[in-house]
Amino acid sequence: MSGRFSSVRAKASLGATAVVAVALVAAGVAVLLSLRVNLTGQAERAGDRAAREVALDIAARAPDRTPYAKLELPDAEDSPVLVTDEDGRLLTLSEGLQRISGSGVPAVDTARSAPDPAGTARTGGSGSSDDDDDSDDDGGDDHGGGKGGDDDPAVGEIDDTTAYSDGSATVEGTAGDYRFATVEATDRTGRTVVVHAGATLADRQSAVNTTAVAMLLGLPVLLLVVGGVTWLVTRRALRPVEGIRSEMAAITASEDLSRRVPEPATRDEVARLARTTNETLTALEAAVERQRRFVADASHELRSPIASLRTQLEVGHAHPGLLDVPGAVADTVRLQQLAGDLLMLARLDAGERPGRTRTDLGALVREEVSQRAADRFPVAVRAREGFDVVGSRGQLARVLGNLLDNAQRHAAGSVETSVRRVGAWVVLAVADDGAGVPEAERERIFERFVRLDDARSRDDGGAGLGLAIARDVAERHGGTLTVGRAPSGGALFELRLPAVTGPGEAGA
Questions:
Q1: Contact, 87 vs 123, CB < 8 A?
Q2: Which of 83, 492, 495, 503 pairs as cysteine with 431 (C-beta 3.0–4.6 A)?
Q3: Least reliable range by pLDDT among 104-113, 142-151, 202-211
């Protein structure tokens, strides 16, 4: 297979691999972020649960209970807990917790800091313990904070809001990352403390790292699979294209336009390409064949007047008295007309577009008919001015002249032309009273070098190009040229052209 198609396969494989790689990377990042968020949420819930359990114990403490340093806290390996006052002074921490720090968490190093031994549940936020005051007459006690016994609440308060922050802690000599939940609690004496409880992030890090490693290891393998499958599928899909290419190369080398490329038995783009290629080859073969016939017919048509003219000139040269001057002139005129027709066809085949001049078809008919002095029969004209069309005046005059010449050759005694308006069309009609055109031959007469009267001498008949030129010009002007039966029994040719709308347009 050629390098071009290999390049197509390579580009398709690389493109598919790149797209999949981008999609997998994006999906992997989304999965890792989602996993990280979910595991962080689990750590937050665990920290919040541990912090609120300690806060609940603080809120329910009796005024005469032991200091905060003797609170029962969770084991540091499960959830390191740190209790401080509102000013950040350490009150107590979990056993085994050696160091703690983080955003929103007071930095504590138990080797340098120690819990406040005087921090009791009865302190009013000063960290000192007060003795019991004398009882009032009603038997109530007055505890720290200036609150009477009757005003001591049955239970303290716990803030509904939980703050979260990332930090680190050293437990039993092992450092790690933690997610801390911070909750404020007020005990029954009115003292507000802050509880910091952490949940380890080791599970989160382990899960994220494991997932990332698995993705990194699986990504190249998956990309190799995608690239390989794309390569094979593209190769299979392009195999018919290679067949089309090789057959086209063989057609080019052999110049045999009758050959056709193989058409796959599918309904995909490649099958449509093959069908379109064969249709193009068919049109090209027809065009080449038409060109060959054209050259052959033109050579044959040119040979007769040239041979006749040469013969007459040679006879005249040898015997001046026998020179047929009128015949030589007729052959020269015919040769000139044929050359003009061939030149016109060549220009039309080259794609020459008609002009965009506004032309009054009625005035054109009157002018052209008035200049025809050599007609066998007079031409009756029924055309008034005011029927405008857009196109090349010269080409439209050529169409009219060809139609009139054809009518003059086949008419028995009369030729008539008319111009009228039919809807959005201007119709130019040329009719004669001759034998007419058989219905089965009405399309064939518009082919090049076609003449129905084979018994007619070539000198009396045309070369078979006039009607072909007329139809080609009509179609290039956006119109049509058809033939039917005239009321007199002869042929009726009708040229239909789009009418010009706007000022100066005449009615029908």
A1: no
A2: 492
A3: 142-151
Tokens of 426: 């201007």
- pLDDT band of 388, cuts 50, 70, 90: very high
- Phi and psi at 427, nearest 5°, equal -110, 120
User: Tens digits of per-residue pLDDT, 59-114?
Assistant: 887 655 556 767 788 888 888 998 888 888 888 888 888 888 876 777 777 665 65
Query: pLDDT at position 45, please?
Result: 92
Q: Look at residue 45 and give its three-state secondary structure.
A: helix
* Residues ≥6 apart with Cβ < 8 Å to 407: 415, 430, 431, 432, 434, 490, 491, 493
Annotate 231-276 with DSSP letters as a single string.
Answer: HHHHHHHHHHHHHHHHHHHHHHHHT-TT------SS-SHHHHHHHH
How many angstroms separate the CA atoms of 126 and 99, rounded?
25
> What pLDDT is recorded for position 471?
92
DSSP secondary structure letter of residue 65: S
Question: Could you tell me which of 116, 197, 190 has the C-alpha nearest to residue 152?
Answer: 190
Cβ–Cβ < 8 Å for 70, 77: no
- Between CA 310 and CA 331 the distance in angstroms is 10
What value, to the nearest 5°, has the Cα angle with vertex 402 and ends 458 and 399? 155
Q: How far apart are the first and last CA of the chain?
A: 67
52, 147 contact by CB (below 8 A): no
C-alpha 422/C-alpha 404 separation (Å) is 22
Alpha carbon distance 134, 131 (integer Å): 9
- 496: Cβ contacts below 8 Å, ≥ 6 apart: 422, 425, 426, 427, 474, 479, 480, 481, 482
Among all chains, which residue has been given the structure tokens 């290039």?
476
Cα dihedral 40, 41, 47, 51 sign? positive
